[in-house]
UniProtKB/TrEMBL annotation:
Keyword Lipid metabolism appears in the UniProt entry: no
GO MF terms held by the record: 2-aminoadipate transaminase activity; aromatic-amino-acid transaminase activity
UniProt record, GO biological process: aromatic amino acid family catabolic process; lysine biosynthetic process via aminoadipic acid; tyrosine biosynthetic process
Name by which UniProt lists this protein: Aminotransferase class I/classII domain-containing protein
Database matches in SUPFAM superfamilies: PLP-dependent transferases
Organism the protein comes from: Wickerhamomyces pijperi (Yeast)
Length: 86
């Protein structure tokens, strides 16, 4: 039997607090299309996404650079209506 739904917390997942990359999310979306399942994206920690020490501080970025530095959500990458966001 194939799964019908994938529940994921892509940002700040316990216990490590890691965030899925946009490339990883695209691969998961491709699998969802191939195997016909829905993704339930739970993002309670999306706005608690901290930068590495080597990255430019947020206050030094232009508004455009700041927007481009954010991780894309599954919902923003979805083209086929497979993602539900809580």
């Amino acid at each position: 039997k194939k799964p019908k739904l994938l529940y994921t917390i892509p940002t700040g997942q316990n216990p490590l607090g890691v965030a899925q990359t946009v490339e990883h999310k695209k691969q998961v979306l491709q699998l969802a299309d191939e195997h016909d399942f829905i993704i339930l994206e739970d993002e309670p920690y999306a706005y608690l996404n901290f930068q590495k020490h080597t990255e430019t501080p947020v206050f030094d970025l232009t508004p455009e650079q700041f927007i481009n530095s954010l991780h894309g959500s599954y919902n923003s990458l979805d083209k086929t209506g497979r993602v539900l966001r809580t």
